[in-house]
Fold these 2 entries.
Entry 1:
Amino acid sequence: MTMQVTMTVNGEEVSREIEPRLLLVHFLRDEIGLTGTHWGCDTSNCGVCVVLLDGVPAKSCTVLAAMAGGHEIQTVEGMAQGGTLHPVQEGFFQEHGLQCGFCTPAMMLTAQALLEVNPDPSTTEIREAIYGTACRCTGYENIVRAIRWAAEHPALEEVTA
Amino acid sequence: MTATDVPTSPVPTSPVPMSAAGNPIGFGRMLRKEDARFLRGKGNYLDDVNLPGMLHGAILRSPYAHARINSIDISAAQAHPKVRAVITGEVLATLNLAWMPTMSYDTQAVLATDKVRFQGQEVAFVVAEDRYSARDALELVEVDYEVLPAVVDATKALDADAPVIRTDKEGKTDNHIYDWETGDSAACDEVFNRPDVVVSKADILYPRSHPSPMETCGSVASMDPVTGKLTCWITSQAPHAHRTVYALVAGLPEHKIQVISPDIGGGFGNKVPVYPGYVCAVVGTIVTGKPVKWMEDRFENLATTGFARDYHMQGEIAATRDGKILALRTHTLADHGAFNATAQPTKFPAGFFSIFTGSYDLEAAYGKVTAVYTNKAPGGVAYACSFRITEAAYFVERMVDILAHDLQMDPAELRMKNLIRPEQFPYQTKTGWEYDSGDYLVTLQATLDAAGYKELRAEQVENRARYEQTGEGTLLGIGLSFFTEGVGAGPRKHMDILGLGMADGCELRIHPTGKAVIRLSVQTQGQGHETTFAQIVAHELGLPPEDVEVVHGDTDQTPFGLGTYGSRSTPVSGAAAAVVSRRVKEKARIVAAAALECSPSDLEWELGRWQVKGDPEKAKTIQEIALLAHSSLELPEGVEGHLDASAVYNPPNLTYPYGAYLCVVDVDPGTGAVKVRRFIATDDCGPRINPMIVEGQIHGGLAEGIGMALMQVIAFDENGNCLGGSFMDYLLPTSLECPSWELEATVTPSPHHPLGCKGVGESATVGSPAAVVNAVMDALAPLGVRHADMPLTPAQVWLAIQGRPARTDLAFT
């Protein structure tokens, strides 16, 4: 049994014939080839699969692709505008907010969503916002600094990374 | 905090020239080259590798810790319309692949044939057209198990009535693996028997923990049926070692095997071993003629791949009444699980645990490690431990604090009194290590000063007085740890893994236009090799680092070497990169001399150029020399053209980074909750090639330490069920548990490393757990608590306060 699902991903409408049980994370990665969204645990604990669903961080390993039908999804591939990095991406670069890079897309999307509702968050507010995604490399400190950097440089910067 | 108060490197470094792109031509803070792809979601991790016609494999795993397999019926699975192959141990046995060698000269079942020996053990491999169908078909495999009693408690593994796990080993009648000794038992006895010594004893458990990188392990194997070439993409920290193991295991010619380690989503030692799933993917591609991908889920990663620790350490420390530490000894029980699959140098079955004398000048030391099989997952490989140094550092730092507790002495004062003095280096330890360099007292003082140690102790006096009066509020704890690691394994004559000496190759080629490519045997898992190694070449040759391409992770493109673990990339491969650059520099000198029509001895090096002594206007830059080396310029007899070199670096000794850590906690005695208020870390890893990257690595290691000390444990119930098989049960530290780290640095170069660098990747993981535990014990001291084992969860702290701390490795007593 298959079903038709249509959603907007990074501003483009996509439509696929899928199994109803297909997870959003596998839809994004395997069906439309956006491998920047990662998979880490299946139990909503690690948060490396976070995407923005109608602008809100959602763990795509626990969302069925069918449930995302009719909604707007943003992935890490949709952050940069043309050749210009989003301030959050630039902040992660400037402040060494990533090492292995596996949790980075989820962290950056979470930060983007935070800054849209709270453009000048304190470090405590940042830590509360990102606690749903685990990182084994950075000890979080430079991620917090990266998001502060983005808050202080809201205009899109020239691409340097 | 604002971006402007982000600390820069605390290490004073002389300024280096900057390149046109704004990067240091040498050591210094440089933003990472590899970030460009990761920031855009364009990394290429294992699960991102997709090949035309690729099939997907999944592993059926044992639900039991110990059971006999009576039969396996695969007919229903084979009948699934999307299944292409079902492979069992019986099939593998016909290929002589049912068992494989481990890194410790033991054997491990690839797919079980006779018995299963731990929960989650590999039983069958299903290959299907998509990953969901492969998982569906697992449920169609019928296995008839006869459940056997399981050995779960390592302390009972050698009991006479314990079930024998390794019945596959001919004549094996118990669960004993090895006894290993270090130091001088008689010399220790003499000290401990002196009438005036104070002896403190403790039983200290470093429970089973798991590195759990955010990316699990996996492989894509593709056999070209025409050329017979096998290409394997593997989550591997050691692609060359893996290739050799596949050649040995599968009998395939090594030149027809290419191992590619793509971007790795964290390793921490978890991606060193060869796992059955990798072998199954290879068999899968051979059987089906199609590429086969196998990717673990999180349970598989946590419950079946290389765990760490599981050391039960009985310790005794002897000192004079005024706090001069004289001797330390231990008898340690090592739980290796069902197969001894630990990866460590052959002569060191207990790894480098014998560095347990730590940073102190002792008269005597003795250690004995007894290793046993249990019905648990195999491994014990790593987790940022430099081959068991984490266990050693934790042991000695707990013993020293327990001694301080018993002597009623300040733990900082006790350490100051006993640390090895600078004039004693190189220092020969009582267990056979030669520490290369150190200035320990300065480093400890730096931490005490940064923390405001006296003020903290004064605050603690008030805190305790208030608690005593009111019985309310939190208790303040201050914990210290001073660790010394030995990293950069290692000297070939002493250290090999499966017979492969632990030296690493490096190749450097300068193109005609002065751009360079350097090829490494090591593989990054986030450490930033593409940046750091370019900086080493820049430092040696004056090339802008952006002009140096770093190639790694592909055995067809890089020279042989043993890979990245045990903090060995900078100590071994970094040295190789420096040596190979110096060879290129000497070759450049000959070319420059030919072009300048002088003798090479008339030239002197200024960063990026050879110039005539006394006449610096007459010079050739490295870029000019590169073009000349490829030109028609006549070179002296016997000098070949082009500008390249290769090197193999065989380290003369380990390097010995060290550090002093201080943790401040607030413990709520009512709930047992521990809040880490501050963490101050002074690391001395020698000169820092890229201080930003070094600090990032320390941050990450400190978070790991918080995790192990307070949250993470793989425990088992009485039937051998793994209780840490998901992130709901195996708790990783998040942004809320971690404080804002406070870092300091001292710089004491290694005298034998070409760059003086010592390696830092594991320092913080090695050093931090003891600081956290010491802090919690310090907080609880007024309540009569002397020791409790990690992880110090609220429940464990609360039990400790009640005077009955638990065995954290078992869910039963």
Entry 2:
Amino acid sequence: MPFAAPGPPSPRATACPIGPDLWFRRAPDGSYVVGLTEGGVQRAGRIARFRGPTVGRTYTAGESALSLESEKWVGHLGLPVDGTVLEGNASAEADPSLILRDPYGAGWLYRMRPRDPGALEARAGRRTDGEER
Amino acid sequence: MNASDRGTASPRADELPVWRLLDLGRCAPERAQAFVEAVAASVAANEAPNTLLVAQPDAPYISLGFHQSFVEELDPGFLERRPLPVLRRVEGGGTTYLDPDQGFYQLVYRDEAGGPGGPADLARFLAGPVRAARSLGLAAELRVPSDLVVGERKISGNAGGDWDGAHLLVGGFLGRADTRTMTDLVRLPAPGLRPIVRREVDRWMTSWERETGAPPRWEVLTRALVEAFRAERLFDARRGPPLPAEERRFETETWPRHQDPAWRELPPIPRAPGGPIRKLRIAGPRGILVFDHAEGEGLEIAIVDGSELREGFLLSDHGGEPAVPLPPDAPALATLRRAVERTSGFD
């Protein structure tokens, strides 16, 4: 059987988990994209509404920044570390089912610049493909 | 209240956790609606026990769900005629009209002594109001996730959320239902839609008065609720006053936040392209979807049960003309059915 070169890693494989609910992926410009893990999606339930964090605002870690509503329950999430939100995912706000269908891809939550990127990296688990970050 | 009443120690298997029964009685809308938010921080900090708060508003007002937009939800003409207070709650769900013919129960609790929060808590705790209603002769049932219904009609709406480190579950009973006001306050894309909305509200909402002839006195219902939560082995609620810290927090943090337009009038969440221009949940899986007419000017109205189209209407313009029912063989009805299925309706 001829050797087949591996394709690019899947979005899931390149996501670094931060605790059970969130993942991040470092973008080429040094910012970080953050989303819900599969476990986080399962815990959230059937998400009906999602309001992302305020773009341009600096949050402290844990401060309520975004909200998810499923089956009439509103849960709040904070940023994993202090930082500034650079971009929200308007597509996921308009269609929260994106978060359920593609949590590691089109259903990302926001892009941020941490005050101390090292603090975020230090909180991360291994990438799901086992490579070092 | 002494420390032993604070519900922090794990109860023995034959003991129930002790909660506070905080009875605000008849009070101003802002207190009936939002004092619970001031309680949340005390409960989260273990300064107060888990709490069952009961209250009745002494005047009408409107409550928006946490994710709802003032501008999208409320009819400006109605607010001009009846400038009711509008409060945005921290829990989920839709727009509600509330008045002195309704009574509220609100649960505030911490993880370790109450539950983990989230939709599963709704079903667990709503066993209490269901049992209370049944003990007073109303054949109420829980329709998951959060409605109490009699037959197919909703008599109690409930919602939850996490706030300030505590979990909140809020709901209420409709003693009498002012379905005209419930309908008139809703912003609609065309006046011709309002009679259809009213018909659906009358069809799927009910009240204690409609079911039994008269609502019970609120004191009676409060006693029934306390007994029901105990009988369901959920908690034993004992009367206790509001704490000075809760009063202070309400005056200095909660109420000022609710008066801030930036809190009350959050910008609308963007809408998915191609989706309905208006989505109105009436009760549970029943609701109304409004689409731009695929064939030209006007609107298409879908009366929906879950993701199933029950009826379709055309509104020929955006004026006050009545909606025209779509016959079963109309091609527009098939188009509308496909549009409803794409949105998943109210599943």
